[in-house]
Amino acid sequence: MEMNVWKKCVCICGMSLLMITTLYASQVTSNVTPDEPVKKTRSTTFIYEKDKTWEPAGEGVTRQIMGYDGQVMLVKVKFEKGAIGTPHKHYHTQTTYVASGKFEFTVGGEKKIVEAGDGIYMEPDVLHGCVCLEPGVLIDCFAPMRADFLK
Predict the structure, then answer these.
(1) Alpha carbon distance 107, 121 (integer Å)
(2) CA separation (Å) from 30 to 14, 24, 25, 131?
(3) E strands present in 11-109
(4) Which pLDDT does position 40 carry in this prediction?
(5) How far apart are CA 32 and CA 106, in angstroms?
(6) Which DSSP symbol is given to 68?
(7) Half-sphere exposure of 5 (CA within 13 A, CB side)
(8) Dihedral angle at the C-alpha atoms of 127, 98, 94, 53, nearest 10 degrees?
(9) Which residues of the chain have pLDDT under 50?
């Protein structure tokens, strides 16, 4: 007898979830006309360096946002010699590729020198920063995107 009660409970929960999902979907799409595109937080599909301005990101540091959506963001960061990537932390996962130059990175208290071709992984909420030893460019990838970088 208990097995039948359990089956009924699972069935009722499943039906409830289906109804809630259907109701939500109908409310979300009811305000969209067939010709109107669905609004998304994302960049354009193709981003050309020549069309992007370099935004200031600290003394001797500029950046270009090279693509994003809600899940991921790609950012190119240019450093002058001696420029500092101020130590900070954030809830995003970050990976960085050193496209050119030489940097001293500190991640979670560990200090290493990296140069063109090297990569760095930063866990969420871990303090990290860098000092530029030779002028260069870093390619940062964040997940989820850094909404604070958007104007």
Answers:
(1) 9
(2) 24, 10, 8, 52
(3) 55-56, 61-68, 73-79, 84-88, 93-107
(4) 65
(5) 48
(6) E
(7) 2
(8) 100
(9) 6-7, 9-33, 38
What contacts 135, CB < 8 A, 6 or more positions away?
79, 80, 81, 100, 101
**Contact at 8 Å (CB) between 93 and 122?**
yes
In the chain the beta strands, taken as DSSP E runs, fall at 55-56, 61-68, 73-79, 84-88, 93-107, 110-115, 119-122, 128-143
**φ, ψ (nearest 5 deg) of residue 97:** -110, 130
pTM: 0.73
Asked if 106 and 69 count as a contact pair (C-beta separation under 8 A), the reply is no
Which two tokens mark 29? 């799409």
pLDDT confidence of residue 27: 45
Q: Which two tokens stand for residue 70?
A: 């809600």
> What does each C-alpha distance from 114 to 2, 51, 96 come to in angstroms?
63, 29, 11
Q: How far is CA 11 from CA 1, 15, 22, 103, 105, in A?
A: 16, 6, 17, 58, 55
